[in-house]
Specification:
With 742 residues, this protein is α+β, with helices and mostly antiparallel strands. Helix content is 32%, strand content 23%. The chain folds into three domains: 8-231, Aldehyde oxidase/xanthine dehydrogenase, molybdopterin binding domain (Aldehyde Oxidoreductase, domain 4, 2-Layer Sandwich), CATH 3.30.365; 255-326 and 390-465, Aldehyde Oxidoreductase, domain 4 (2-Layer Sandwich); 334-381 and 477-737, Aldehyde oxidase/xanthine dehydrogenase, molybdopterin binding domain (Aldehyde Oxidoreductase, domain 4, 2-Layer Sandwich). It has 20 helices and 29 strands. α3 runs parallel beside α6 and α4 (113-121) crosses α5. Residues 1-37 have low confidence and may be disordered.
């Protein structure tokens, strides 16, 4: 069925990129052009209808004057389609009511080079003469990596800043140039506003559509002039969301909604012990069940193909399976934490570890401290538990493979599918849909690989759906971590030393670092791998380390007999942005006010993904039960592109982090995950939802992220509120495992 492999002359390998070092004469300009030549005409048939003008890779205009922003990121509820379209439309001076959004296809020309550029260069000013070369190199890099990722809270601060704004400004210039040429007037005399071009002295007026075709023939500027923020008309406003109407009326299509003629349904069970394989299987009973058509052995998993999900699920239950577990069936959660303890103990003896921060003389400072504190914290493995379970529909036909799914990286899904079935990536077509939750889980394509392999074996279009039990048992998990601290105060109660040693470092490196002015610091990690598969989870390492650091700073405040808010504030004298965020949260929450018996107030501050967030939690502890009643969140993300969207993301991050803090725990038993569904891996329910108030601070600093920074501070803020309420210090999550009857 697969086409024979052929050389891919235009595809750079990773080795080729490293060896060549630069792209001679090649240039990508905001996803618009690569020297020599104009890239948009090559992709016209891929993303545009015959009557639409494709001005550049990110902008097309129809005959009805509707503008479509082509966005290279997945929409998974975070509002990125709206925010990025706003940034493009503002620079284009477009009428928002005439703006549509289209997700970019899984095509290498839509690799996220702007995301990589933002990650690599940040806000650094690149000289005009070097823009082409830099963009060309980064494009080749992202193409070699099959990178079309949505994650890391980078969409707005990287693609938006370096891609969509520049693309909109370039397209605006192209339209103005085309109109000036047609009307034979100086370009400077034209006014572009609300998707129209005006020449006020002659009274001429035209829609963008009237000049779109001519503009598409013009080479775009490599570095167009961007608006001064004072001139923004859409950026900074709560423009209506592009994705909400379809989600409200039910017309929105998610991956699991895919339908094809003669579609088969499959479900799957992988070896419950990670890394295990199928040793033997008896499928006799399963194949006798009504609706069951075949059993596919994937090596590490078994799939049942049927004419419906219920039939496939029954068939899977009827299989008699023997697994080869490679001796890992003896691993349990207590053993994992014992392993961590041993590694940390050895590090304490040897003074070992991967040192990230080493400032001052920590041992001398500890010896001189008037009061000292040691504490150990730990967090469990966590699953993503997206509401839409993993699913993918695949159809191999006519030498191509089409897949319908929701993925955070369509190019990565394309590459993984092609590799799994021996196709060329160009012969795999990805139809990406809305994602019913992801949080990092859909950046891994195990479910896509399974789907294409099962569809190939079934020789029919096949939709693979994971059960919730499979989703919980076969996730890519946020790692369990143990983290040890030592701290000391001088005779005035001022912290003079901070040491932190933890296991299982991932990324980003700055996650365990603190903003507080403590002269002597040592932060280090030790490797302690387990067989549990790692996955990026909302806010990645920030979600663990904020709990550790903001709990320990709170404990130091208690040791100093100091107010936890003012203790932090005094240590932020050289961090004005952090202090302003902390103040905003505390003042809005009414810090210092009386709460009554059994109630407490906790605060936490953490910077992640370029945004600074402080959260204050009001909690009530009654008969051992914890009820979070209110959360005040203050955020400085530099500038709020869509304030309503930013508030929604803070609320979302708080709910996600609150669920993890109160209930989240994946534990191992006999080598496999003990939990199976929402009865033993519970989510926060609607009747438990606290009041959330978000304060936005537009500091004018570099753009920060929104999707993830709201999550890290909530767990320590809750734990600190519990201590304020009843004097019990939570050093291990989830909170629900502790007896709080005091």
């Amino acid at each position: 069925m697969a086409k024979p492999k052929k050389p891919r002359l235009g595809k750079w390998t990773r080795r080729g990129l490293i060896t060549a070092g630069v792209v001679t004469g090649g240039a990508l300009v905001v996803g618009i052009a690569i020297r020599p030549g104009h890239r948009a005409p090559k992709l016209r048939d891929v993303v545009a209808d015959p009557d639409e003008a494709l001005l550049n890779l990110w902008v097309k205009i129809g005959p009805d004057n509707r503008i479509t922003a082509i966005v290279p990121h997945a929409e998974m509820g975070q509002g990125v389609h709206t925010a990025l379209a706003q940034m493009l439309a503002d620079e284009l001076d477009a009428d928002w009511d005439l703006v549509d959004v289209q997700e970019a296809p899984a095509h290498e020309e839509y690799a996220n080079h702007n995301l990589a550029k933002g990650f690599l260069f940040g806000d650094a000013e690149i000289p005009r003469a070097l823009v082409g070369t830099v963009d060309g190199v980064v494009l080749k890099l992202t193409q070699a990596m099959d990178l079309q990722i949505t994650g890391g809270s980078l969409s707005v601060r990287a693609t938006g800043l370096h891609g969509m704004r520049v693309a909109g400004a370039a397209a605006r210039g192209m339209l103005a140039k085309a109109a000036a040429a047609a009307w034979k007037v100086p370009k400077r005399e034209l006014v572009l506003r609300n998707s129209h071009i005006l020449h006020e002295s002659s009274g001429r007026r035209a829609t963008y559509a009237e000049f779109a075709a001519a503009a598409a023939e013009i080479a775009p500027s490599s570095k167009p002039k961007l608006k001064d923020p004072k001139a923004f008309s859409l950026i900074g406003t709560s423009a209506k969301r592009q994705d909400v109407p379809a989600k409200v009326d039910g017309s929105a299509a998610f991956g699991i909604d895919a339908q094809l003629p003669d579609l088969k349904i499959a479900t799957v069970r992988s070896c419950p012990v990670f890394g295990g394989r199928v040793a033997a299987v008896d499928d006799t009973a399963a194949l006798k069940l009504p609706g069951v058509e075949r059993v596919v052995n994937l090596g590490d998993a078994l799939a049942v193909v049927a004419d419906g999900y219920w039939h496939a699920k029954r068939g899977l239950a009827a299989l008699a399976i023997e697994w080869s577990t490679n001796g890992r069936e003896g691993v349990d959660q207590a053993g994992v934490f014992a392993q961590f303890e041993g590694v940390l103990a050895q590090a304490d003896i040897d003074d070992a570890g991967d040192v990230e921060v080493d400032r001052g003389d920590c041992e001398a400072a500890l010896a001189a401290a008037s009061r000292r504190l040691e504490a150990e914290y730990r967090v469990p493995y966590l699953a993503h538990a997206a509401m839409e379970p993993m699913n993918c529909t695949a159809w191999l036909h006519d030498g191509v493979c089409e897949i319908w799914t929701g993925t955070q990286n369509p190019l990565g899904a394309r590459a993984a599918a092609a590799e799994a079935i021996g196709f060329e990536p160009d012969d795999v077509i990805v139809h990406n849909a809305y994602l019913g939750g992801a949080f990092g889980r859909r950046s891994v394509h195990d479910y896509v690989v399974q789907a294409v392999r099962v569809a190939k074996a079934a020789n029919a279009p096949t939709k693979l759906i994971w059960s919730r039990e499979e989703d919980i048992a076969q996730d890519r998990y946020r790692p369990a971590i143990t983290s040890r601290f030592r701290g000391g105060l001088d005779d005035k109660g001022h912290p003079i030393v901070w040491t932190n040693l933890y296991v299982d470092k991932h990324e980003p490196a700055q996650a365990p670092r603190i903003p507080y002015a403590i002269d002597n610091q040592r932060i280090a990690s030790m490797p302690s791998p387990t067989h549990v598969p790692f996955g990026v989870w909302r806010a990645v390492d920030h979600s663990q380390h904020a709990f550790f650091t903001e709990s320990f700073i709170d404990e130091l405040a208690v040791l100093a007999n100091a107010d936890p808010y003012r203790f932090r504030r005094d240590l932020l004298a050289r961090q004005p942005r952090h202090r302003k965020v902390l103040d905003a949260a505390a003042e809005t929450a009414g810090w210092g006010g009386e709460l009554g018996p059994g109630r407490g107030r906790g605060i936490a501050l953490h910077e992640s993904f370029g945004s600074i967030v402080a959260e204050v939690v009001d909690a009530r502890v009654d008969a051992g039960d914890v009820r979070v009643e209110r959360v005040v969140c203050a955020i400085d993300a530099g500038y709020a592109v869509n304030p309503d969207g930013l508030r929604a993301q803070m609320e979302s991050g708080i709910v996600y982090g609150l669920t993890a803090a109160l209930y989240g725990e994946i534990s191992l038993e006999r080598g496999h995950v003990k939990q199976s569904n929402f009865h033993d891996y519970p989510m926060l329910r609607i009747d438990e939802m606290p009041e959330v108030e978000t304060v936005i601070i537009d500091s004018g600093g570099p753009l920060g992220g929104a999707g993830e920074p709201g999550t890290p501070p909530v767990a320590p803020a809750v734990a600190n509120a519990i201590h304020d309420a009843i004097g019990v210090r939570i050093r291990e999550l989830p909170i629900s495992k502790h007896d709080l009857n005091v």
